[in-house]
Each structure stands twice: as structure tokens, then as C-alpha cells.
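Q: What would this chain look like folded?
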Amino acid sequence: MTEEPGQRGFFEKAAAFPMPAGPFLPHAPPMLCLDRLICVSETAAEAEVVLAPGHILLHEGLLCDAGHVELAAQTAGAMKGYMKSCAEGDAAGSAKTSPGLGFLAAAQDFSVMGKARAGDTLRVRVSLRAEVAGVRLLEAEIRRLPAGAPPEILARGKLKVVVPEDIPGISAG
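A: My prediction, written as C-alpha cells:
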């Protein structure tokens, strides 16, 4: 995960990022788990969430292990939704164009190395490693952003996501 905001490929506009993640995902509360997109490119994205008390992925005040996978999957979905909106001329997502559907097919080699708690701010990063016929392989990393301290890696792993509209011969409708 070497591509950084500001490098070639990121669709950064001073007034655009960060922006709400919701318009780029098919989820609605309470399953809309991300707060905002920090940056997006064709091959990587970063999103952020503040784990407010009562967040759907918290159990007894702690982020459940599967929650890391869900946050990574939603970041991958927001990346795809943003790219689709850009292709349709709506980079702000203001028209809430349909972001399309994608399905988490697998989570592999996911390691949870630390616990996130209610009140934590998390930064979720996904990087596209391969894409073939509508199947995307991504690497993911979730970090806690503690105030006044360096980010702490909480989890990392790989995702396989299937995007039906990108499969040859499958209709988007």
C-alpha cells in the first residue's frame, strides 16, 4: 500500500475531499458504517469512521473482529461508487447516482492486532491488487488515529469482491 494522497492517480480536489461516504454506497443506516472518504484513486481509497457509542459494529463497546472486514469492504465499495460517480460526471455524489452493487466473496489472511473502542477514529485503506472479469482482489489495512500519537495498525488482510456489472455478459439492470 504505497500510493499516497497527492501522488499520481488520486482524484483529489481541494474542495472535494474529505467528503461523506454515504452517497457512494448502497447502504443505509444503521449498516452505513463509514463516515467519510478521505481520498480515492483508481487503485486505492481511504475512508474514516468515528466509532460512536451504539455503532452497529460495536459489541460491549469494542469493534467486533468481523467489523474490520466490513469496514474494509465498505471502503472498497465507496471507492467503486466514487469512480462510477466520476464516470457519470458527478464526483460529489450529489445526485446520489446508484453506486451499483458489489459482494464480498472472501476475506483472507485477516489479522486483528488491536481492539478499537467506542470513540476511536479509524482510517481504513484499501488497495486494488488485481482485477479479472468483475472479481477484485484488494489489500486492506485499518488504523486507529489516536489524538497526539502516531496511527496504530489494528487489522490487515485481503478481500475478494465481486462486482456483477463488471462481469462480461452480465446486465447492470
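The longest helix spans residues 65-87.
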